[in-house]
Amino acid sequence: MLESCQLCPRRCKVNRLKDEKGFCGIGRFAKVSSAFAHFGEEPELVGVSGSGTIFFSGCNLKCVYCQNFEISCLEEGKTLYPEELAEVMIRLQEFGCHNINFVTPTHVAPQILEALEIAIQKGLKIPLVYNCGGYENVEVIKILRGVIDIYMPDAKYSKKESAEKYSLAPDYWQILKEVLKEMHSQVGDLVCEDGIAKKGLIIRHLVLPNNLAGSFEILDFIAKELSLNTYVNIMAQYRPCYKAYEFKELSRRITLSEYKEVIDYAKLIGLKRGFDLNV
């Protein structure tokens, strides 16, 4: 998979086994920025002991407004070999984390599988979370069937113009729809035990200013093509970061009315999980 890399839709075809680097900026081995018990994720992931997040450096989107641009775009982090990455997973489990949360895993899926083989032999057994940007090669997602317990993709855009302008991914929406269907077919709606996520799909949608994301069409697709019981975290925390100030339309936070408009629409079409129904 790494010899002529086509892990994501960009299909750079570089030989990452020889440490060649394509759009994502990562070669043979994964780079990790940080790994810790995260208490800022969805409540169903955090529980009482936190979500065991592993932040991978590099990204196949590199959005102009990325809030983690030092990691995703500037690729800050430390190279970890498979044995080291496996040990990170084991330590997070020993700490008591409810899951292992792979953040931005798209471009390092083989490296994760390589490390998982070691970690599972050492006793790793908590659920695995695939926390991604939604711009995936669906064939890779199919390979992950039976490995990943919880898929947590972003649903960034339904508008081609926005996806191209801000993430250099004009085909984002068409690919995302196929990917969401595959993820949902594998794990279904989110299932929790005692309030803790065990298996299923969580979709994150960040509301952008000036309706640049095309929120209504995204929600329509989820409601009609996936399930009205889909967990959708509709997020209001957009703020201008990285290169956002170079784009006038992105250079401000969203308003309460912009956010409420999306929440109201989600409720109108029958969605009910993952967001505050009282907004």
CATH level-four homologous superfamily name: Aldolase class I
Q: Mind telling me the C-alpha Rg?
A: 18 Å
Percent helix among the residues?
A: 25-40%
User: So what's the CATH class?
Assistant: Alpha Beta
The CATH topology name reads: TIM Barrel
CA-CA gap between termini = 45 Å
- What is the H/E order? EHEHEHEHEHEHHEEHEH
How many helices does DSSP assign? Answer: 9
Give the overall shape, derived from the CA principal axes: globular
Sheet having the most strands = 9 strands, mixed
Low-confidence stretches: none
Mean pLDDT value = 97
Q: Specify the CATH architecture.
A: Alpha-Beta Barrel
What is the total number of structural domains?
1
Coarse structural class: alpha/beta
Assess the beta-strand content as a share of residues: 15-25%
Count of DSSP E strands?
9
In short, what is this structure?
The protein is 32% helix and 17% strand. It is an alpha/beta fold and 279 residues long. The mean pLDDT is 97.
Describe the structure in your own words:
It is a single chain. By secondary structure, the protein is an alpha/beta fold. It has a single domain, classed as TIM Barrel, CATH 3.20.20. It is 32% helix and 17% strand. Strands 1, 2, 3, 4, 5, 6, 7, 8 and 9 form a 9-stranded mixed β-sheet that branches.
